[in-house]
Amino acid sequence: MSFLDDILARLEAAGENVVLQELHGETQQAASPQSGRGLLEAIATARALLSAKGLKRGDRCALLAHNSVRWAAMDLAIMAEGLIVVPLYARQAPAELVAMMKDCSPALICCGDTVLRDGIVQNWSEAPPQLLFEDVFGPLQRTRRMGHPDNAGYKQLADSDPVTIIYTSGTSGEAKGVVLTAGNVGHMLGCTSGRLDALMQNKPGQDRVFHYLPFCFAGSWIMLLTCLLRGSMLTLNTDLSKIASDIRAAAPDYILNVPALLERMRKAVDEQLWKTGGVVLSIYGRAKSAWVRKQERQTGFADSMWLALANAMVFPTIRKKMIGSNLKALICGSAPLNLETQLYFMMLGIPVLQVYGLTETTAICTMDDPSHVEAGRVGPAIRGIEIRLAENDEIVVRGPNVFPGYWDRAHETAKALRDGWFHTGDQGEVDAAANWRIVGRIKNLIVLGSGHNIAPEPIEEEVLRNLPGAQQVVLVGNGRGYLSAVVTGDVTRERVQAALDAVNAGLPHYKQVRAFHIYSEPFSIENGLLTANGKLKRDSISARLKDEIEEMYGVKQAS
After folding, report:
1. How confident is the model at residue 25 (pLDDT cuts 50, 70, 90)?
2. For 311-354, what is each residue's pLDDT tens digit?
3. Would you call 514 helix, strand, or coil by DSSP?
């Protein structure tokens, strides 16, 4: 049996219990609540239309839509028909989406709405046929299903069968299509469900889960499938500006996050309490200072008192307003989490469980054990996975979660998969308890003219920690005599210099940042300087700011 068999069986067992719902509007009213049986009917409806298109097993089917109940139904239907899902990011530029689709040649494009469809057609005159969600799930189709009653006759999946092609973000160069098989996904769902069992400690009833990350990303998709496999009630955010209120309305047991949201949540609490002032702010400020000293093992005489007061009078209110009363943990992945942010949530009594992995490893290599979380690390390897360090402390991985290769890129596959090991490109370290820490990216290493190799990420994080108001810090210096930094955000030159002085004091001479430039426009997906999932496009940043970088090294540009 494949993971798809297990999910369909679980939906049947769920019956009329709601397994998916969307939140809409100012009152967070649940829209399109879908029971297990209702989702099975939607899958059967979609399968009927796909079958009528005459597609062949193994054909690619692009899926371009925002998160919704219908997205989940279409995704499962495509796989049940023996087709390969190619999920695409609805916020990405149409020209970039077209380039990915030309690479994998889909036989059909399923679009959530006419705006998304028109963006593709305008950029691709020879686009394959398109199918709108309304054409699939509209009233007429709900009353006239063309076959496939109760999802009978779906295509059985072998472990080696490809089920999806997920395009990587492409921090440098064009995106590559990562092929994942039924075996990859099945193994991963067993691992994620096992970790969630440990978190929930066999709590009766459905898990309540809140979700806002796009399903087209591997980790987000694995969370969706895990929830369906577990029979959880998954609540979908449909408006990113309402995440905070939606979380409270959903009252979840856990949430999958990216570091950027946790940083915003932390900043919002600080700003709100600063406006409130008075005794509450005084207790909060003193408790935060006491918590920092406790982590540094420099506890003062009154620190225990301030922390006790905050735990009694301040922190419970913050927790309730931030994430409701049910939350067992925040789960965080996709990018490195600032240690200070993780410690901050721990101070509030909110565990943050870290996950590390890449699309090529079916999203996950390591996961924090809920019973033993070590701040700053990303947990031990998941079941059945081998991880070790190779040259330059690169993390390499072997196991049933590792993808078979990139779509139509044999040379790239051979570079990434060597002797059965996937080379992640990440630098890491592991402690005696087998908990891993991610240091940085091998390809991001800065090699100074002196020959010193420097991972920029730890220094960038430390500067950000010392520079409130900064949004991004990017180090440059390949082949140069010293490091320089590009800083974005609401900062002054005096504050940047003060932050650099504080950080430099604890660094060897070759790691010290000796020049900087404040760039007025934050790096974003829209200006092409961040990837679709928020990672820095360092090569593009260096190219865009070439003149500014040259000036930091005393090279005057011709006017």
Report:
1. low
2. 999 999 998 888 878 899 999 988 778 888 899 999 999 999 99
3. strand
Q: Give the model confidence (pLDDT) of 251-292 as tens digits.
A: 999 999 988 788 888 888 888 888 888 899 999 999 998 998
Domain assignment present for 192: no
Q: Could you tell me if 237 and 307 lie in one domain?
A: no
7 burial level (CB within 10 Å; 0-12, 13-18, 19+): buried
Residue ending a domain, among 212, 227, 257, is 257
71 and 155 co-located in one domain: yes
- Comparing CA positions, the residue from 218, 169, 120 lying closest to residue 540 is 169
Q: Comparing 296 with 199, which gets the higher pLDDT?
A: 199
483-489 β-sheet, strand order: 470-476, 483-489, 513-519
Does 547 lie in the same domain as 450?
A: yes
Whether residue 32 is found in the same domain as residue 172? yes
Q: Is residue 405 part of a domain?
A: no
CA-to-CA separations, 436 to 188, 226, 262, 337, 441, in angstroms, rounded: 19, 24, 21, 13, 15
What is the SS3 assignment for 271? helix
pLDDT at 260: 79
Domain hosting 69: range is 3-185+200-257
Q: In this structure, are 179 and 117 located in the same domain?
A: yes
d(CA 276, CA 447): 48
Angle at 65 between CA 62 and CA 68, to 5 degrees: 125
Report d(CA 129, CA 148) in Å as an integer. 23
Inside any domain, residue 438? no
Pick from 104, 116, 367: nearest CA to 222: 367
Tell me the pLDDT tens digit for each residue of 32-47: 789 999 999 999 999 9
DSSP state of 241: G
The predicted-structure confidence for 504-542, as pLDDT tens digits, reads as follows 998 888 899 999 999 988 998 888 888 876 788 888 899
Same domain? For 218 and 74 the reply is yes
**Distance between CA atoms of residues 481 and 449, nearest Å:** 5
What is the separation of C-alpha 157 from the centre of its chain, rounded to a whole number of angstroms? 27
Apex 83 CA angle, 79 and 85, nearest 5: 70
Q: Is residue 36 domain-shared with residue 122, that is, in the same domain?
A: yes
The pTM of this model reads 0.85
Mark whether 275 and 173 lie in a shared domain.
Answer: no
Indicate the pLDDT class of residue 174, thresholds 50, 70 and 90: confident
For the chain, the domain total comes to: 3
* CATH classification of the domain holding 493: 3.30.300.30
Question: For the domain that residue 54 is a member of, what is the CATH number?
Answer: 3.40.50.12780
Is the model's pLDDT at 451 over the cut of 80? no
